[in-house]
Write a structure and sequence with these properties.
The complex is a heterodimer of chains A (113) and B (114). By secondary structure, chain A is mainly beta. Chain A is 0% helix and 54% strand. Chain B has strands at residues 4-7, 10-13, 19-25, 31-38, 42-51, 54-57, 64-66, 76-78, 87-94, 104-105, 109-113. Chain B is built from no helices and 11 strands. Classes of the chains: A mainly beta (113), B mainly beta (114).
Amino acid sequence: GENVEQHPSTLSVQEGDSAVIKCTYSDSASNYFPWYKQELGKRPQLIIDIRSNVGEKKDQRIAVTLNKTAKHFSLHITETQPEDSAVYFCAASKNFGNEKLTFGTGTRLTIIP
Amino acid sequence: NAGVTQTPKFQVLKTGQSMTLQCAQDMNHEYMSWYRQDPGMGLRLIHYSVGAGITDQGEVPNGYNVSRSTTEDFPLRLLSAAPSQTSVYFCASSASSRVGQPQHFGDGTRLSIL
């Protein structure tokens, strides 16, 4: 089955700086890559996603890039703010949808004021 | 519109007991799924359903059963609880399994097996 590795497991950045979280996947048939944010004690929430026919997607301060050849994708957060502090999970699946999503192990992002 | 509702929020069981975690959604979503979340392990898929009457196994199905008799409800049954099943359980739903759409998660059930 699919295996998704996520790095780093923890990340601290100064407020206003950028943060980058990277994930690699093993199944070349995977074609849907969402990112979820989970604040402490809360439910995970989708923040951005990308399909394999797109190389990059942006939504305000958040962007995701995908390299199909290398089988890795990354989350970029610019101009970080204290409310960006959370655990971020990447995931991968086939069929362009949520069916049988495989999640990474998460990155705890801390924004230092 | 309540979204995805999970009950109970907390539960303590003894080894060998059985119980059912309830999950209901009021968004007429086709796709529903159950995950467990353990420290350092991320979210792991237990079972999922692409519609009423259709269920399938995820990554870690052993020790759990599911059924989907209606679109709204997707209960998760622990057959004989074991300490290894101590975890936080999340139910999620999305409009479709085949189009990238947000999965809406419930608040989770924190389960402890003694």
